[in-house]
Amino acid sequence: MQGSRSRRSLPKVKGKARISPRDHFFHSDGLTLHYAEWGDPAHETLVLVHGNRDQCRSWDFFVSELFARGSPDPHVVALDLRGHGDSDWSPPGRGYQHQDFLRDLAGLLRHLRKDSATFIGHSLGGSMALLFAGCFPERVRKLVLIEAVGPFARSDGDVPKHLAQWVEEDRSRVEKFFYPTLKDAARAIRKRFPLIPEAACDHMAGYGTKVTDRGYLWKYDPRVRFPSYSTFSEGQVRAFIQRLNCPTLLIYGAEGDFMQSPRAARLGLFKNSEAVGIAGSGHHVPHERPDGLAKVVAAFLREQPSPIPSPWQGRGQSL
């Protein structure tokens, strides 16, 4: 089961010429997955990985801003993770675990015939990009993590209760939200995340919903609301981070509470890294401040890798 696969027009971003992507599909792990593609495949590839209940076209504003900055001229691919956007949903009996999303990333690289790529991930997508880089350090050239430093860790004592809850939950009874119009869906996004501009909310609703006889419904599988039963301890998450060798850019919203999160203590574990806060944004940096994000990412992409990793000393900058 999957979302409706349709094309809608891309609005202009602050008067800039719009950049429309090419839609593609590929088969991986028994599913058909969708991705949007910009630029020349012969160039270095940037893989964009969205957050939970989001979809690949939410990156449109960021991509437009990135290309407006010129060199380097990348090849950009934004994936719809399984259960999201125009990709297939996992079949009954299979959920959405960390290893499932990692298969999506591995399958995408195989499909693109790329040995390595730069990964840019937001929230859930950032955590999956980090885990992928920890599993396969040689396949990740550079890494940009936006409001993400790995999945939440669970203590040993939390795991039995968490697993029991996952087994007993009735996943067939998941509340669905229908909206009479696209504007109503966009207002729901803006109400929950007031820092996201109205035009971005309209765009996200346009690409993130499908039409039903009861109104507009989000494309994502309602089951992605449930937490994964695959868990890691804090020590295991840190082991992934310690395996990273690539230059890493750690992005957080300066108006949010990410730096007060217990996970922020992991920032000091990253080698060859820099932490940057984006002013005027909270958790949803790519949607709230695509211009500020593109500015720091473009500069990061132009940098040559440092021959000697230098640990971040705990002092991020804010732009």
Task: Describe the protein.
The protein has 319 residues and is of the alpha/beta class. It has a single domain, classed as Alpha/Beta hydrolase fold, catalytic domain (Rossmann fold). It is built from 9 helices and 12 strands. The chain has helices spanning 60-68, 98-112, 124-135, 158-168, 182-192, 198-208, 234-242, 285-288, 290-302, and strands at 22-28, 31-38, 45-49, 75-79, 117-122, 140-146, 178-179, 209-212, 215-218, 248-253, 273-278, 317-318. The strands form 2 sheets. Strands 1-2-4-3-5-6-10-11-12 form a 9-stranded mixed beta sheet, sandwiched between helices. It starts with 21 loop residues before the first strand and ends with a strand.
In short:
This protein has 319 residues and is an alpha/beta fold. Helices cover 30% and strands 19% of the residues. Mean pLDDT is 88; it is low at 3-17 and 306-318.
